[in-house]
């Protein structure tokens, strides 16, 4: 494997974007850092697909996205090459109404002046630290006692009575998941998950040589009978599950199913990796699996969906001291430590109430955007939750996900087809639509109306018609 592929295999799973966007991002980073130079030939697509553990189509889309940004060029019969002159700004085909990215599942960015001022104040406070250089030194992995206590305080509404000694502050939730997969399974082992889920675990599993067993799920979440059947036939090393406002389907695991899955896991001794990035958003919450099977559940939550992915702070609650010691060693070997300055900032924002204020603001804005979606997509079947900031759109016939996705991109709407999230084949005819990020309410509503109008046109008509 050449150096480019090694870098991309390590970097792409860390980027919280669809895989094909992440490939283009990795190429852009290498160009900006001088690791890729003008006219340099890129690795063949099949080599990229193999190195990243993805299919050929996704690798090809990654190169196509990089070409659309003006980063690379294809030469028939010869391959793909870095452009001789890299544009200062990405080159994109844009629609006459402008482009809004609805592919990134990020919370709506705050506009309230008071909240923004609180965020600014937190950042400014780092410069006033008595031991400023202490934020630049190596730290013990997992955070200081005060940082662990702050994490326990933030999680208390979902997960009461967390012992800070069994909580680790991690470099993002994705980093915690990487450590858990590495600690609980070996190459060739099976980890169970939903058939549609967070694409980051596909990259983690491929990197570690772990097989994923995608299980059926519906609007009430994972099917317990399917999980029990897998346990009886081929006992998995763990179950990975996103029980609340699941990415991408928005499904929330019902109380009945939570109880059933916890019982099955306990019966067979299967550890549960509970990934709960959106668990703070619903005002009325169902209890986490970690409260139903506490001796088997590894609970992961981060601040990416509350404050932003750039903070890169996640919290991992472990079942007992034995696992805490083991995971501390594993995670430290993978990531050394979380950024001390960002840990300090996260702790400050939790303790002074900024995180709570941001959560309430995101919850209310998400409710407003879901109301917009209900109006704009009237008559179209889709999955959503009142306090989530994404929705799941089954693509109605005669459209296919590829045709509709292509059509939407022509009109400035970037969404993500189901292939990105599929843990098994075939992927369903569906797309994820995100309502947050930098877009305003008006921009979000306009894009939703475009989606509605595109669906209403038959593919053959849409090919030659303007929306």
Automatic annotation (TrEMBL):
<keyword id="KW-0032">Aminotransferase</keyword>
<dbReference type="GO" id="GO:0008483">
    <property type="term" value="F:transaminase activity"/>
</dbReference>
<dbReference type="InterPro" id="IPR051446">
    <property type="entry name" value="HTH_trans_reg/aminotransferase"/>
</dbReference>
<dbReference type="InterPro" id="IPR015424">
    <property type="entry name" value="PyrdxlP-dep_Trfase"/>
</dbReference>
<dbReference type="Pfam" id="PF00392">
    <property type="entry name" value="GntR"/>
</dbReference>
<feature type="domain" description="HTH gntR-type">
    <location>
        <begin position="17"/>
        <end position="85"/>
    </location>
</feature>
<keyword id="KW-0805">Transcription regulation</keyword>
<comment type="similarity">
    <text>In the C-terminal section; belongs to the class-I pyridoxal-phosphate-dependent aminotransferase family.</text>
</comment>
<dbReference type="InterPro" id="IPR004839">
    <property type="entry name" value="Aminotransferase_I/II_large"/>
</dbReference>
<keyword id="KW-0238">DNA-binding</keyword>
<keyword id="KW-0804">Transcription</keyword>
<dbReference type="InterPro" id="IPR015421">
    <property type="entry name" value="PyrdxlP-dep_Trfase_major"/>
</dbReference>
<keyword id="KW-0663">Pyridoxal phosphate</keyword>
<protein>
    <submittedName>
        <fullName>PLP-dependent aminotransferase family protein</fullName>
    </submittedName>
</protein>
<dbReference type="InterPro" id="IPR000524">
    <property type="entry name" value="Tscrpt_reg_HTH_GntR"/>
</dbReference>
<keyword id="KW-0808">Transferase</keyword>
<dbReference type="InterPro" id="IPR036388">
    <property type="entry name" value="WH-like_DNA-bd_sf"/>
</dbReference>
<dbReference type="InterPro" id="IPR036390">
    <property type="entry name" value="WH_DNA-bd_sf"/>
</dbReference>
<dbReference type="Pfam" id="PF00155">
    <property type="entry name" value="Aminotran_1_2"/>
</dbReference>
